[in-house]
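Quick one, T. Sequence first:
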Amino acid sequence: MELKVSTRSHAGHALVAITGEIDLYTAPHLQSEFTRLLQEGPARVVIDMSGVDFCDSTGMNVLLSALKRMKERGGALEVAAPRPAVRKILQVTGLDSVFTVHEEVPQELLIAEGS
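Structure tokens:
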């Protein structure tokens, strides 16, 4: 399964939309996207996971690594709209208390996207 990552930035915020499966084979692609994005220095990154069907421990580690790097810079990394399978992984691992998890993509990012 292919992993698609698209990023839109606006006013210090970045919305990262991920589609596909995040696993051992696709995680390096996501990692490189986060590395590139973090060099741009947004204060807030929201990951739209509504298109993610599956995420294994490798994928969760990529997200945790990005969260750690954002926090080191005083920024925030949040997860939005995880599907039930991904939400369950977040709950079982306790990561739902580590990440800020939104039911859907925050409205202010969707508004910013259209401008």
